[in-house]
Amino acid sequence: MELPALVPGRFLTRENRFRVQVEVEGRPTPAHLPNSGRLLELLHPGRRVYLMPRPGKHRKTPYDLVLVDLDGLLVSVDARLPTNLFLEAWRAGQLPWLPYAPGWKVVREPACGHGRLDALLEGPRGARVWVETKSVTWVEDGVAYFPDAPTARGRRHLRCLAEKVRAGDRGVVVFIVQRPDARVFSPHPADPHFPQALREAHAQGVEVYAHRFRVTHQTIEPVGPIPVRLDLPPDLTAREKSTPPPNATSRDAS
Predict the structure, then answer these.
(1) Distances in Å between the alpha carbon of 254 and those of 77, 134, 218, 235, 239?
(2) What integer is the mean pLDDT of 14-19?
């Protein structure tokens, strides 16, 4: 995935769920944050960030905050990208569990129960693969974690995928790690119910995968799959998740 020309800045503070203050050319300015997660390990005052200009008379902010420089490692925080990143990796033949072939049809945001999933892939001879992607930005000691906040929506998606599996289709959740330094993925009890919900969905036939990506100032490119570990991490001492950051309310991670 190619990125447009980005503007460097410095993170100042988070005002609410989707709005931050950044410094651009020495002046504070508001920016949209396209991510509902807490991002506590990334959004530190003074940290270098990269912004996508978003002009328009109906815009309330002139930029989107899309990349964070974590001590020289670029992390994409744009939670709108995982479905497109997944599809690019699939079409590039990087998903051994789902070989790409011409003739597959992609349906975006298909209805599922009272909500929607990210994609439905329809293949030859009636093959149907329901896909939900999740954006992952949190990595510690090589372990990528999701979620970093309560996610009732994420648990609903898992139940919906399980229903599709019971109906005879494939159901897949793919954790898109938008940084290259992860070696393994594990669910995290920042939502105390999500790890068990993921294990139960997997036991019912929902396939669980994780794929990491390399981020530069110009591109986000697939690196390859990483193993999934469904056991709980040992504790919460490395990063306390029960307290939201200043000026942010409790929210549902995507």
Answers:
(1) 12, 7, 25, 23, 19
(2) 95
pLDDT in tens, 71-99: 999 999 999 999 999 999 999 999 999 99
- Which CATH number is associated with domain 7-76? 2.40.50.580
Find, among 79, 182, 187, 192, the residue nearest to 140 by Cα: 182
What are the sequence ranges of the domains in the chain? 7-76, 82-226
224: left (phi over 0), alpha (psi -120 to 50) or beta: left
For the domain spanning 82-226, the CATH number is: 3.40.1350.60
Contact (Cβ atoms closer than 8 angstroms) between residue 215 and residue 3: no
pLDDT in tens, 120-160: 999 988 899 999 999 999 999 999 999 999 999 999 999 99
The pLDDT value recorded for residue 57 is: 79
> Per-residue pLDDT tens for 145-155?
999 999 999 99
